[in-house]
Design a protein that fits this description.
alpha/beta, Rossmann fold, two-stranded antiparallel ribbon, 12 helices, 10 strands, globular, disordered C terminus
């Protein structure tokens, strides 16, 4: 199970059943729709601080991805494409046609995949320290793929041990020593993974996108397709999970793109500087007209991409 909702929760969990599985989500506000996708081992609570600001002008939807939070954790399709399909189905049930899709970390990979699979439903793309732009990733994330990692997490899951480990991680965060900035968030991911169902789901996810060597899924071969959509990239200068240099790879492929580096943030800039993040996202939405899908334009871009790939192979 995910974190229990408190009685004064500003954006309480709602749920729908799709394909027999409960999908939990938070929804607030009115206006143009913004879909917020969290990262691996996290849940929709990571977006609550930003939702407080965004819901004043937009309809904001923040789901708990399947296998996370208060959504079901079945034996299911945990591929990036499967998650993109799940978001399409959720939006359809909620009677939402088009969105600005924003994803953090693993959710950034899903956001890119959603835009790739459903360009007709994507108005803009927002990426917050996303996966899928290179193989580099922290040792901590790669460790999730090591045989026996699930057994070790299970051994560390008793409540007494959780109190000690979570307290230690959060205490280290307060020291502001190098590489400790995001340990408070790591403590919450560890708490979530103490649930055996959540561990099983995350293991399925990592089998699609990670190995001990790093990220195995790359969106760079399709990044040129984002030329037809506005793109906003946000990264923390002190991100030790996924390196900042990946940001430049993202914006290099997109003419209508912008990049913002939060100097005092790590891997969670949308949470630790929520108001600034919401302001940047709102300005991005207001200053960039929504992409309009046209099959002819998409087809022409695919042909140009194929020719460019063939030319690169020929000159290699």
């Amino acid at each position: 199970m995910g974190r229990a909702a408190s009685p004064d929760e500003p954006f309480p969990i709602r749920s729908v059943v799709i394909h027999g599985h409960r999908r939990a989500y938070r929804m607030a506000g009115s206006g143009p729709v913004v879909l917020l996708l969290h990262g691996l081992g996290c849940d929709s609570t990571t977006w609550v601080p930003a939702m407080t600001h965004l819901a004043r002008s937009y309809t904001v939807i923040a789901p708990d991805l399947l296998g996370h939070g208060q959504s079901d954790k079945p034996q299911a399709d945990y591929s990036v494409g499967g998650y993109a399909n799940g978001m399409r189905d959720l939006l359809t049930v909620l009677d939402v046609d088009k969105v600005t899709v924003v994803g953090h970390s693993f959710g950034g990979g899903i956001a890119m995949q959603f835009a790739y699979q459903f360009p007709e439903r994507t108005e803009r793309i927002g990426l917050v320290a996303p996966g899928g732009l290179g193989s580099d990733v922290s040792v901590l994330l790669r460790a999730l793929t090591v045989p026996g990692a699930g057994v070790l997490l299970g051994a560390l899951s008793p409540a007494v041990i959780q109190v000690v480990i979570r307290g230690g991680l959060k205490g280290l965060t307060s020291t502001r020593l190098p590489y400790t900035q995001d340990l408070g968030e790591v403590a919450e991911v560890y708490r979530a993974l103490c649930d055996p169902q959540a561990r099983r789901a995350v293991r399925h996810v990592t089998s699609h996108v990670l190995s001990w060597r790093g990220q195995t899924l790359s969106m760079l071969d399709r990044a040129y397709l984002a030329q037809l959509m506005p793109l906003c990239v946000v990264w923390g200068r002190n991100d030790h999970m996924i390196p900042l240099n990946h940001a430049y790879r993202a914006v290099a492929h997109v003419a209508r793109s912008e990049m913002h580096v939060f100097e005092r943030s790590g891997h969670f800039p949308h949470k630790d500087q929520a108001e600034r993040f919401a302001e940047i996202l709102a300005e991005f939405i207001e200053s960039h007209s929504a992409a309009r899908y046209h099959r002819g334009s998409w087809r022409a871009l695919l042909h140009r991409g194929d020719r460019a790939q063939l030319s690169a192979v020929a000159t290699a």
